[in-house]
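ok so I'm stuck.
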Amino acid sequence: MAFKVMTTFMPPPPASSFLSFHPQDNNIIAIGMEDSTIQIYNVRFDEVKSKLKGHQKRITGLAFSTTLNMWVSSGADAQIFIWSIDTWEKRKSVNIRLPAGKAPCGDTRVQFHSDQFRLLVAHETQLAVYDGSKMERIRQWVPQEPLSAPITCAAYSCNSQLVFASFLMEILEYMMLIHSV
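replied:
not stuck anymore, here's the structure
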């Protein structure tokens, strides 16, 4: 008796978690993945140019700086990686300084200022601005009591003069408290 393979079940590929178009060539897309890798994909030729590794958790942010000839990735591991735009090689990594006792989890978002030198980093515990050329922190803001809600997102304004941030508030609990009075 001979056995015949009817079908093969494979696990699904990892889902994409973030993407960013190359600012000088819209055919190149950096795609952050749930499995912590980043794929550099060429749309025109329908091929993965490179698969980058380094993060320990899913990719949560990508940002390009053509002025500095680099791009930045951020992950749920509270790490920021600096990559070369030309070679796709890792140049440097920076760990976000978390408050004592805080585990590296939660989304970390990145966005370059309009000058393409300053990098805004938003983590649930803090907002920080880095000098992109040295990856040194210039400023940091950590929410204090009574505003101790986690930061969910932050972005520069259109002219990069302001930073807007949103917070996870317990609105449902507040609404239930009002109805019980």
